Automatic annotation (TrEMBL):
Top-level taxon: Bacteria
Sequence ranges assigned to domain Peptidase S33 tripeptidyl aminopeptidase-like C-terminal in this UniProt record: 421-520
Protein name (database record): Alpha/beta hydrolase
Family: Belongs to the peptidase S33 family.
Keywords for this protein: Hydrolase, Signal
Location of the AB hydrolase-1 domain: 98-264
Length: 536
């Protein structure tokens, strides 16, 4: 999870931090051993008892619900799930319960809801109008957060992995033998720390069934749903398994669900290319604004950036410890590249990126290093606690090629199509290739949501994680959907753009939608103007 957040990033990077928390994982192509044969399995699950709530914060209540580990064995082992509720602030006009999934997979919904007052203006931040009319319900999915979060590495292994030097000149960040060894360590650790049956149960279809258990325990006939990033896989799954239980649904920064449940390698390539496009957008804006606004690179930011990465790889910058911020260390080229990838993916953090690059160019690596400490949530293999849950969920859903040749070919394609960012995507599905707990009954039929009200699908034109064509594909796959596009760079749109926020509020509250194909302009033009001309 994000541990450190520089003060400058709080001002300019709140949206960036929340977007990172919501990044999807990987995948592609739909195939598998069953279609919807398990769709009715949840019908045989015993009805849960009503939730017993206890106060756990301002206007917050917490509860635990026990659900079957496998819905094909409703009387078998159970899993406790953490649930949190933010009561409607205008109970006299309450519409019902709104369940949301903030993404990841691996992001804690309860933690996100608890931090809601601190995250205004970030993707997925509910408006006062929505908070007035809905009980907002957060459920930590199985294996995530307070719902028995997956653990695969020891504290020592996490620290060692986080401190490993990544070489951006090598696809995947490390030589292939080291990548294979790391994958073995990770997956062996998962099998050692977790029950294989539990790991196999972490699939999205089970998460959707868990949501319906929560709905039943709440006493609701229907739910309203908002999903961000990976949450847009959960939502269509729920709508497909339980169409009669959906009141309204909004899907923000959508994943192509037809890709999610198959070969993840083309999926990862799409993510890398999308991220490369947002970095190129920063380069283009820096050039267009000119050196008076963007002095980095003196008119050629690409060349200056590549030179900086090479310089930092050859001679990393020493970083002195700062109490309460960073223990100190070294900033190398790969760390600078990863931080740049994250900051370039949200146009509100472009000024912060420019400042940090200027500082590093002038020999001060502290800003980039501190930011690197904060951007360890990623669709690529960054060793964090969230990454363990992230990997476990996607491996339960994906059908990943086992042969290394497919991964080598995908790595070559990634670094060809995304010259800078592709190195972070290459080989990032190796953990799933040797996953110790295969899920043999995943749902893989197209998630059409047939029988539900039209869904509002919201997509950013330049999203660093979920490219716009995924939203177009989702809109075609769903039986009934409306596509709303936000111009500009960023992952997630609701709460960050006034036009989108009005449309989403209308969909959630009144069930009304804009015309299909409507486009929302950015509220503020992107700029690369630095916050402070560091060391100048």
């Amino acid at each position: 999870m994000i541990q450190l957040r520089p003060r400058a990033a709080v001002q300019y990077g709140a949206a960036f931090a929340a977007a990172l928390m919501a990044l999807t994982g990987c995948s592609s192509g739909a195939s598998g051993p069953r279609s919807m044969s398990a769709a009715g399995a949840s019908a045989s699950a015993p009805s849960p008892d009503p939730l017993t709530w206890s106060e756990c914060g301002k206007n917050l209540e917490c509860a635990t619900i026990k659900v079957p580990r496998e819905y094909t064995e409703p009387d078998g082992a159970q899993i406790p799930l953490a649930v949190m509720r933010h009561r409607a602030t205008d109970p006299g006009h309450r519409i019902g319960s709104l369940i949301f999934n903030p993404g990841g997979p691996g992001v804690s919904a309860t933690e996100t809801l608890r931090n809601l007052p601190k995250t205004a203006g970030t993707p997925g931040a509910f408006s006062p109008a929505v908070l007035a009319k809905f009980d907002v319900i957060a459920m930590d999915p199985r294996g995530v957060g307070e719902s028995q979060a997956v653990r695969c590495l020891t504290d020592e292994q996490r620290a060692e992995a986080a401190g490993t030097d990544f070489d951006p000149s090598v696809p995947g960040g490390k030589p292939l033998p080291r990548l294979l060894a790391d994958a073995a360590t990770f997956t062996d650790g998962c099998a050692e720390h977790q029950s294989k049956k539990f790991l196999a149960s972490l699939s999205t279809d089970n998460v959707a069934r868990d949501i319906d258990q929560v709905r039943s325990a709440l006493g609701e006939d229907k739910i309203t749903y908002y999903g961000l990033s990976y949450g847009t896989v959960v939502g269509p799954m729920y709508a497909t398994l339980f169409p009669h239980r959906v009141r309204q649904m909004v899907l923000d920064a959508p994943v192509d669900t037809n890709q999610w449940f198959g070969d993840p390698l083309p999926f990862q390539n799409d993510v890398a290319v999308a991220s490369e496009r947002t970095l190129n957008a920063w380069f283009k804006t820096c050039r267009t604004e000119g050196t008076a606004v963007c002095p980095f690179g003196a008119g050629d930011p690409q060349a200056a950036f590549d030179a900086l990465i090479d310089t930092l790889e050859a001679k990393p910058l020493k970083i002195a410890p700062v109490k309460g911020a960073t223990p100190g260390g070294e900033l190398d080229g790969a760390m600078a590249l990863e931080t740049t990838r994250a900051l370039a993916g949200e146009q509100n953090t472009w000024p912060l990126l420019t400042s940090a690059l200027l500082a590093a160019r002038d020999g001060n690596g502290a800003p980039l290093y501190t930011l690197w400490s904060s951007v360890t949530v990623s669709p690529f293999p960054v060793p964090t606690a969230m990454f363990e849950a992230h990997t476990a969920v996607r491996c339960a859903d994906w059908q990943t090629p086992a042969g290394i040749a497919a991964h080598q070919a995908a790595a070559t394609k990634a670094v060809t199509e995304a010259r800078r960012i592709g190195t972070r995507a290459a080989y990032s599905a190796l953990n799933c290739a040797r996953w110790p707990a295969p899920n043999k009954d995943r749902v893989t039929k197209p998630l059409t949501g047939a029988g539900t009200p039209p869904a509002l699908v919201v997509a950013g034109r330049l999203d660093p994680v979920t490219p716009h064509h995924w939203a177009e594909n989702m809109t075609r796959t769903l039986d009934s959907a409306v596509l709303l596009t936000r111009e500009g760079v960023g992952h997630g749109s609701y709460g960050t753009n006034s036009c989108v926020t009005r449309a989403v509020d209308a969909a959630l509250i009144r069930g009304t939608h804009p015309a299909d194909g409507t486009v929302c302009e950015t509220d503020q033009p992107a700029t690369t103007r630095p916050l402070v001309l560091a060391n100048r």
